[in-house]
Amino acid sequence: MGKDILMIVGDFGEDYEIMVPFQALQMVGHEVHAVCPDKEAGEAIKTAIHDFRGDQTYMESRGHNFELNATMAEIDPSDYDALCVPGGRAPEYLRTHEEVIEAVQHFFEADKPVATLCHGPQILAAAGVLDGYEMTSYPAVRAECEAAGCSWVDGVVTDRNLVTGQAWPDHPEWLAGFMELLGDEVSHGEAVAAADD
Asked: What is the pLDDT of residues 91-124, one digit of tens each?
């Protein structure tokens, strides 16, 4: 049987980093609940698409409406087996919500699988859970991660319960790493949700 996964999202989170893991994890049999502070199931967040077009940093375009399927105020993090924190612009304000910080801290205190990429580690840094980890992030967030006590490396990395990537081009390796933490069998680009023993 698949796992129950909590995904914390917000307005102008990166479109691919929300949509792709949300759908891919469901595809292999996991239940994914996407929540956002101050919004309810059935409401939508607006996503953003970040792209490089020859400038020194990325450009942001309007993405899609992404419908939430659970209400953050009603969920209990202890009911979930794992956490996914996408990137984009949303983490800079999501980390100001105490319920987000407390949820993230629960997954680390309980040593449950956590996957984050791009700017998502901003939330983990604010939650004070990165000390002693080897991890990565979007390179512009490196200073925040290192200030939170991690060893920052270039490339997708799994350290204990945490798998991190730099941005959506890392999806194949990053998602495979997360699925392995979930107990899925990952081989040659295919994954199958692990059955309960």
From this structure: 999 999 999 999 999 999 999 999 999 999 999 9
The number of CA neighbours under 13 Å toward the Cβ of 105 is: 10
In a domain, 35, yes or no: yes
Tally of helices (H runs) and strands (E runs) in the chain: 6, 12
| pLDDT tens digit sequence for 48-92 | 987 767 767 677 788 899 999 999 999 999 999 999 999 999 999
For the question of residue 118 being annotated catalytic, the response is yes
For residue 149, tell me if it sits in a domain.
yes
The C-alpha atoms of residue 169 and residue 25 are separated, in whole angstroms, by 17
* Structural domain includes residue 167: yes
Cβ pair 191, 179 in contact under 8 A? yes
pLDDT at 54: 75
User: Which range of residues forms the domain containing residue 148?
Assistant: 4-192
Given 118, 145, 150, 188, the catalytic residue: 118
pLDDT of residue 112: 98
What CATH number has the domain bearing residue 114? Answer: 3.40.50.880
The count of domains in the chain is 1
Among the options 119, 150, 171, 188, which is catalytic?
119
pTM, to two decimals: 0.91
171: left (phi over 0), alpha (psi -120 to 50) or beta: alpha
Task: Note whether residue 197 is domain-resident.
Answer: no
What residues does 163 pair with on adjacent strands? Answer: 115, 158
Would you call 119 a catalytic residue per the annotation? yes
